[in-house]
Amino acid sequence: MRNRTRAGFLLVASAVALLSGCGEEPDQAQETNGFPQAAADYFADMDGGVELNEEETKGRNTWVIWTAGNDAYWDYVSRYSFGSTDLLKTLDSRYRDRRFNYYGLINEPGFKQATGPDEFGLWLDEPDGTQDPFYAAAAYEEMFPREQFVQVYGRASGIVGLRLFPNPAFDDEARKRWDAQRYYNDPKYYRDPDLVRPYRVGMSCGFCHVGPHPTSPPADPEKPQWKNLSTNIGSQYFWTNRIFTFDQKEDSFIYQLLSTSVPGALDTSFFATDNINNP
Predict the structure, then answer these.
(1) Is residue 23 part of a domain?
(2) Which residue segment(s) compose the domain that 146 sits in?
(3) Total domains, the chain
(4) Tens digit of pLDDT for each residue in 53-88?
(5) Over the stretch 184-215, which tens digit does the pLDDT of each residue have?
(6) What share of the chain is helix, strand, coil (3-state, %, to 5)?
(7) Whose CA is closest to 114, among 159, 83, 79, 151?
């Protein structure tokens, strides 16, 4: 009996070991040392120009640009919400001149409206040439090369808090199937959960928390400079329903659900006791 019990445990253990090795996806997890913190004080003009030490600077950088790998999550949401939530479309550069007015989002300084689509036919903001990209900072360029920076932090998208990453699933087969015109205009195409987009979009904490600085707001809210922005005032003009629904009509449940979070309530309405969706 004892031998049979041991044999049974051994069989189960062997089966678990065998099955655990089948169909495994590549592990994208990294060690802590694979995420070196950016120490350059790129956002020195924010928050009223407050002076920060090196550790505080790293913290602010993390707050504004680090997405903690959630680009994979938002890509999943884009696919399995059947295209109704798609941050890559929120980035459409053709709306940059009215982004704040419509979405309540903060245009990133140093960028301009695209003059045309990129290599994949997508309309994404372009650098305006007024400032160097973050990764070019001389303070750590040698120990933190551009390739590694982009892998950890992605690249700026033109909206503060949204970062662009290359999509590792966008292989030759996905490239052949990709059609930007249909992606923007054909519901049958962009609602397909098997559609692979060229980029994944990550979201940093700053997306929901960076807003116009109350003592030095921008003259034109569509054209802020870093000195006009605060990292912790909250994105108080955020239109949740417009940002997170692409083609939902006002009579849809998801549109109405997201509409319960109104501008001005972003930093006060995401709690279980907010009395908005949790009476």
Answers:
(1) no
(2) 38-268
(3) 1
(4) 999 999 999 999 999 999 999 999 999 988 789 999
(5) 999 999 999 999 999 999 999 999 999 999 99
(6) 40, 10, 50
(7) 159
